[in-house]
């Protein structure tokens, strides 16, 4: 599945829109990223830019944006309310989907090293990309700001991680940058059936990590208790990694608890929603819904849906669209205005902007018509993947029907696990439908390369072999995924709803057909490879899996027939 990260560079310019326009255009023109937001602040003299994409595309766009900012922003002339020490003051990378924080931190360090080496900008790595604990905190890295940078860099323990360690005339113009990796921040407001800001604040203090000031006698009006240094002592709230406050929104005529969740692994959105709801109820107040400010990662909503489905003892193996709907309704995300996933979920925003048309987005009839046309793609590889996806879908359907069968409530979790596995396999196989056609197109592109001189011939030959190997590996991945579908079909034939046993049997038959089709594509593509050792090995493995698939199908069909005969 595609890895996606978000980048939120903060540029030290908030008054000249033309400068920011040049920077954002440079970011967009790098390709492969989607610009989501540009927030200019006049008083802070700072602009926050948000864009997303695949890791390599994001760090390339970030590098170009930092390069352009160095050209256009002179820190010697900069004054603003917000702390800063460079033209590109901070540049955090945030994991969004299918990528770990550790991987994201490595990309941040890769970007930091390139910025230091190629642009001559001193770079401090912070948060999860930091090389030592004291540099994890951005405030420490930026202490002294631009005006104190020369003094800071003169101390060995505060030499930059990358780039020049001497404050010269080049550094004096662009300053330094902090590049790091941090968690996604979710900005969320909880709608209350009250207009009281005082009560909304009380709920916010109940839950936010910082909590509320401790007072003498533990009363709400007692004198605030301070420590020996004269600093206020706080009673911590119940939710870690959250900041919250109560306010009144005139537009809606209600009070809200406004919250930032800075670490969704520590405090998932649905956990925060449940806790705010509980604390509000304890004060006689009801949470009527939730408002997401900005964008939200898809996995946050999927996790919420899984939580609420489990509470209802319903199968978690339902499709993604259904899960998004359940999350929206469970937390009232559409309370104040419609929640449109295509406009609020980061991954959907990226998909919507993609120019390429996907086969899997076609109707069944359109896909069949496209296959039947005179074009060689989609061909057998894509059809094999699609047939495998249908096989997984059938097994998943039986699992979900079984989870909801009256009298089988105590088995819902068993069937839910099978349904979840089936949904995952179905989605992977659907992705391979387009991947197989993409592989074919790579071969065609390689054959279209020039072959005039010797170097061009060598490059063309290399590209053809590389594309052919990829075109061999894609149907092999299809075969591997399809082979796993048999496990689901067998479990459903044995223990699933007897009324749907033929659906599971049909799934097994489709899986065998998909396996055979995938094998044939592996074999034909491998025959053109010059790396004969690899070709022989992958064909042998594919043939072994296909033979086992045929045996598995025959065995499962016989079981289905026995169930039918006994009915």
CATH class wording of the largest domain: Mainly Alpha
The radius of gyration over CA amounts to 29 Å
Spell out the CATH superfamily of the largest domain.
Formiminotetrahydrofolate cyclodeaminase monomer, up-and-down helical bundle
Helix content: 40-55%
Quaternary structure annotation? single chain
Instruction: Sum up the overall morphology in one term.
Output: flat
**CATH architecture classification name of the largest domain:** Up-down Bundle
| Total helical segments | 18
List the helices and strands and how they pair.
Layout: E1 4-7, E2 10-11, H1 17-29, E3 33-41, E4 46-53, H2 55-72, E5 88-97, H3 101-119, E6 123-127, H4 138-142, H5 149-153, H6 169-174, E7 177-181, E8 186-192, H7 197-207, E9 212-213, E10 234-235, E11 242-249, E12 254-261, H8 269-282, E13 287-293, H9 298-311, H10 320-331, H11 341-344, H12 346-353, H13 364-372, H14 380-403, H15 412-447, H16 454-495, H17 501-526, H18 532-566
Parallel strand pairs: 5-7, 6-7
Antiparallel strand pairs: 1-4, 1-5, 2-4, 2-5, 3-4, 8-12, 8-13, 9-10, 11-12
Brief overview:
By secondary structure, this protein is an alpha+beta fold.
Could you walk me through the main structural features you see in this protein, from its secondary elements to its overall organization?
This protein has 567 residues and is an alpha+beta fold. The protein folds into three domains: 4-181, Formiminotransferase, N-terminal subdomain (Formiminotransferase-cyclodeaminase, Chain B, domain 1, 2-Layer Sandwich); 186-351, Alpha-Beta Plaits (2-Layer Sandwich), CATH 3.30.70; 356-566, Up-down Bundle (Four Helix Bundle (Hemerythrin (Met), subunit A)). The chain is built from 18 helices and 13 strands. It has helices at residues 17-29, 55-72, 101-119, 138-142, 149-153, 169-174, 197-207, 269-282, 298-311, 320-331, 341-344, 346-353, 364-372, 380-403, 412-447, 454-495, 501-526, 532-566; strands spanning 4-7, 10-11, 33-41, 46-53, 88-97, 123-127, 177-181, 186-192, 212-213, 234-235, 242-249, 254-261, 287-293. Strands 1, 2, 3, 4, 5, 6 and 7 form a seven-stranded mixed β-sheet that branches. Strands 11-12-8-13 form a four-stranded antiparallel β-sheet. Helix 9 (298-311) crosses helix 10 (320-331) and helix 14 (380-403) packs antiparallel against helix 15. The chain starts with a strand and ends with a helix.
């Amino acid at each position: 599945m595609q890895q996606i990260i978000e980048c939120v560079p903060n540029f030290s310019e908030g008054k000249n829109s033309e400068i920011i326009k040049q920077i954002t255009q440079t970011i967009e023109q790098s390709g492969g990223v989607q610009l989501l937001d540009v927030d200019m602040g006049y008083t802070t003299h700072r602009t926050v830019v948000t864009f997303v994409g695949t890791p390599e595309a994001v760090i390339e766009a970030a590098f170009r944006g930092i390069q352009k900012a160095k050209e256009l922003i002179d820190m010697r002339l900069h004054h603003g309310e917000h702390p800063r020490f460079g033209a590109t003051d901070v540049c955090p990378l945030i994991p969004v989907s299918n990528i770990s924080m550790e991987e994201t931190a490595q990309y941040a360090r890769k970007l930091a090293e390139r910025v230091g080496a190629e642009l001559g900008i001193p770079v401090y790595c912070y948060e999860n990309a930091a090389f030592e604990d004291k540099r994890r905190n951005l405030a420490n890295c930026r202490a002294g700001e631009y005006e104190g940078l020369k003094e800071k860099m003169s101390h060995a323990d505060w030499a930059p991680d990358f780039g020049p360690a001497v404050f010269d005339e080049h550094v004096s113009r662009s300053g330094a940058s902090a590049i790091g990796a941090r968690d996604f921040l979710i900005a969320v407001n909880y709608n209350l059936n009250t207009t009281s800001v005082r009560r909304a604040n009380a709920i916010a203090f109940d839950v936010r990590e910082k909590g509320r000031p401790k007072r003498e006698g533990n009363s709400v009006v007692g004198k605030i208790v301070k420590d020996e240094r004269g600093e206020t002592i706080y009673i911590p709230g119940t939710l870690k990694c959250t900041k919250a406050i109560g306010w009144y929104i005139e537009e809606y005529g209600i009070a809200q608890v406004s919250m930032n969740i800075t670490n969704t692994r520590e405090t998932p959105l649905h956990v925060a929603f449940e806790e705010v709801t509980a604390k509000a109820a304890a004060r006689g107040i009801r949470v009527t819904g939730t408002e997401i400010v900005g964008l939200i990662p898809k996995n946050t909503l999927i996790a919420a849906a899984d939580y609420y489905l489990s509470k209802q003892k319903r199968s978690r193996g339902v499709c993604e669209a259904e899960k998004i709907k359940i999350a929206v309704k469970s937390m009232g995300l559409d309370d104040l205005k419609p929640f449109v996933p295509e406009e609020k979920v980061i991954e959907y925003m990226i998909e919507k902007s993609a120019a390429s048309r996907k086969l899997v987005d076609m109707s069944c009839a359109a896909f069949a018509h496209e296959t039947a046309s005179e074009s060689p793609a989609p061909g057998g590889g894509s059809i094999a993947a699609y047939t495998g996806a249908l096989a997984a879908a059938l097994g998943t359907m039986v699992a979900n029907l079984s989870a909801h069968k009256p009298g089988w409530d105590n088995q819902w979790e068993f069937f839910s696990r099978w349904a979840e596995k089936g949904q995952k396999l179905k989605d992977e196989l659907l992705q391979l439908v387009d991947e197989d056609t993409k592989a074919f197109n790579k071969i065609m592109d390689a054959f279209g390369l020039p072959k005039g001189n010797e170097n061009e011939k060598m490059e063309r030959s290399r590209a053809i072999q590389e594309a052919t190997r990829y075109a061999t590996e894609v149907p092999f991945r299809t075969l591997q995924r399809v082979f796993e579908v048999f496990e689901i079909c067998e479990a459903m034939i044995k223990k699933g709803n007897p009324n749907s046993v033929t659906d599971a049997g049909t799934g097994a038959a489709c899986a065998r057909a998909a396996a055979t089709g995938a094998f044939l594509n592996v074999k034909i593509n491998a025959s053109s490879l010059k790396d004969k050792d690899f070709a022989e090995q992958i064909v042998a493995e594919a043939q072994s899996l296909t033979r086992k698939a045929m045996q598995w199908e025959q065995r499962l069909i016989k079981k289905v027939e026995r169930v039918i005969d006994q009915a």
